[in-house]
Every structure is written in C-alpha cells, then in structure tokens.
Design a protein that fits this description.
By secondary structure, this protein is of the alpha/beta class. It contains eleven helices and twelve strands. The protein binds pyridoxal-5'-phosphate.
Length: 350
C-alpha cells in the first residue's frame, strides 16, 4: 500500500499464478504446461527471425492470422491474436463482456475471470456447477449481459459437447458467448465450426498448452468480424505490437507443424488415461477429464495436506483454497515418468 497508488490499484485483487520453481529437479505438474518440447520447426523459425529484431513487428501479425485462418478454415479477418490468451481475454472483457446486466460464468472456473471483472469494472454472477461438478447450460437461463466459460472447464477438466454449446448460443442470441478453449485439443469438441452461423460466438485458444509454447505468449480468438473489430479497437488503444517478431515466427511454425501437434497431444491423452487408472486404484475420485490435467480428490486425505507433502518431496501440483474444491488436487499430465513418480509418492503416503 502506498499513498501514491490510484484508487483502482487499491481495489484490485490480482490473479496468483502457479509457482515457477527456481530449483532444478522438480516434477512440475502444477501449471498445465506441456511435458514435451515444441516442434523443432518452431526453434528454427525463431532463429531465422532474429534478422528482423531491429525492426518493429507487423502490428497486425497478418502472417500468423493467415496461418491460423488456414488451419481453422476461417477468414484472417475472423482471427485476433494477442500476447497469450490471457491478454486476448483481458481485451475481451473490456470490449465485449462489460454491460449493464451481469456477466455469467461458473462458480468453479478459471480464476482469472473475476480478476478481469475487478480490473475493468464488469459486474458478474457465478452460476454454480451441479453436484457432479458439471456445467448445466439450463442454469444459464437468466438475464445477463454476456457469458464466458472454458470448454473443457478448468479446473474440473469436464467438457461440454458442441451441441450443448450451440444450444447455449441459440438461447442467448443477443449476448456474446465466449468459449475459452485453452484445453480443447486434449479431447473436447471445438466450437470454431459454429462461428459461421453464430454472430454472438467468440472462441479463444492458446498455444501455451497443446502446442507447448507457454513461454512464447501467443493466444488467439476466432469470431465474426464485428467481434474481432471490437478486440482490435481495444488492442490498438493499448499496445500496437503485442507480439514480437520471434513470437509471430514461432507461432506460425507451431500452427503449421500439424504432425508434431497430433503426436504430442495423443501422448498426453494416453498418459492421462493411465494416470486416471492409477489414481482411481489409490482411492481417488477422478473427474472425467478432456484436458491435459486431472482434478481428483482422495476419499480420506485432504487435498491441502497431500499438496504440501508432495511439494516437500519435489512434486508440485495445484491446490485451490476455495471451499467447494478444497479437497481436490489439479494434477497436470506430465510424461509417463513424471506421473509414475507422483503415483509412487502418493502410494507411500496413502
Ligand atoms: C492457461 C489458460 C489460459 C491462458 O493461457 P495463456 O498462456 O495466457 O495463453 C486461459 N484460459 C484458461 C482456462 C487457461 O487454463
């Protein structure tokens, strides 16, 4: 606190990111990073782009938007890119989600959403997940200014079908519905194919998880032109160059190397299934995950205790101090070896 702070700063409650340990040798299963390296083509593209460091990057990142448009079968004008999907989300809250009526999102969801509401003065209402921790779209039938939800949801990992998303879009024709697809590539159905027939849909994705580029900071949104134009108006009032030339070059290479993408995401999904079996055998209840993490609680050990003891033994998992989910651990799917080490430690503890 300081007398120099603006009232806005006094009233913020910032997001707390998962720990990034300084020590080596930690098994890091706490921030949903990909355990595999990005495509080797990404590194080559970044190396080649260093020639251009003297120059400002393309403020529109046109070549990246074209690569994304080709991959997802939309027009480049239907693509917005930003410095991580967190930045795309931030612009979305300001550009499209701030209305008189409240924004709706699940009570258990990405904890950055209420933070953006605080930053931009967006009023919101939380819609409780059902007893099985699922999103029920019928529960969103109430007056609102807009809706945002991750699919699959975080931190539950549970996915909605594309048909359910379409029902939500049809029930709210006059509200923007944002689907945050940070984890969609690990087994859920993307809503991108619905963009052509729903002018109220904005889909947000990231290269951080399924393309193993959390450190490069690239995310994007796909929607019809008026929604994209709103994001561009905010972006061009904030930072004309959110993506550097290295990020643009690396992201294009990642989007174009489909083979690497398919292989690594398949490996993560295979390990998720074996991790789920192992945890279930140890008497964990594991929610059905379509993401690169599982959300699990033990029948007799508290989540907080397990997380603390694992941490002492060099394995980081995420625990949320929030009443409804305090017994759960969110465990990122690592390599088979990393998950094996986690399971071996849990077997000793339990
Ligand atoms: C990880 C994550 C993001 C943000 O990813 P970036 O690294 O900023 O692209 C957005 N939404 C959800 C639900 C996430 O889990």
């Amino acid at each position: 606190m300081s007398r120099f702070w603006s009232s806005v700063v006094h009233n913020l409650s910032p997001y707390v990111p998962g720990e990034q340990p300084k020590r080596d040798g930690i098994v890091k299963l706490n921030t949903n990073e990909n355990p595999y390296a990005p495509s080797p083509r990404v590194l080559a593209a970044i190396a080649a782009a260093t020639d251009r460091l003297r120059l400002y990057p393309d403020p529109h990142a046109s070549s990246l938007r074209e690569a994304i448009a080709d991959r997802y079968d939309v027009a480049p004008e239907e693509v917005f890119v930003g410095n991580g999907s967190d930045e795309v989300l931030a612009h979305t809250f300001q550009a499209l989600l701030k209305h008189d009526a409240p924004l709706l999102f699940p009570d258990i969801t990405y904890s950055f959403y209420p933070v953006y509401c605080g930053l931009y003065g967006v009023s919101y209402e939380e819609v409780p997940l059902d007893a099985a921790m699922r999103v029920q779209i019928a529960d969103f039938r109430r007056p609102c200014g807009a809706i945002i939800l991750p699919n699959p949801n975080a931190p539950t990992g549970i996915a909605l079908s594309r048909d359910s998303i379409e029902a939500l879009l049809t029930e709210h024709p006059d509200q923007v519905v944002v689907i945050d697809e940070a984890y969609v590539d690990f087994g859920a159905e993307s809503a991108v194919s619905l963009v052509a027939r729903h002018d109220n849909l904005l889909v947000i994705q990231t290269l951080s998880k399924s393309r193993a580029l959390a450190g490069l900071r690239v995310g994007f949104a796909i929607g019809q032109r008026p929604l994209i134009e709103a994001l561009e108006r905010v972006k061009d009032s904030f930072n004309s160059y959110p993506l550097g030339c290295l990020a643009i070059a690396g992201a294009i290479a990642a989007i174009n190397d489909n083979e690497w993408f398919q292989e690594t995401r398949r490996r993560v999904m295979t390990t998720r299934e074996s991790l789920t079996r192992d945890l279930t055998e140890l008497d964990f209840e594991v929610l059905p995950s379509a993401a690169n993490f599982v959300f699990a609680r033990h029948r007799s050990h508290s989540g907080g205790d397990l997380a603390t003891r694992l941490r002492e033994l060099g394995v980081l998992v995420r625990h949320f101090n929030k009443s409804r989910i305090a017994d759960f651990l969110r465990i990122t799917v690592g390599t088979d070896d990393e998950c094996g080490r986690l399971v071996a430690l849990l077997r000793e503890m339990i």
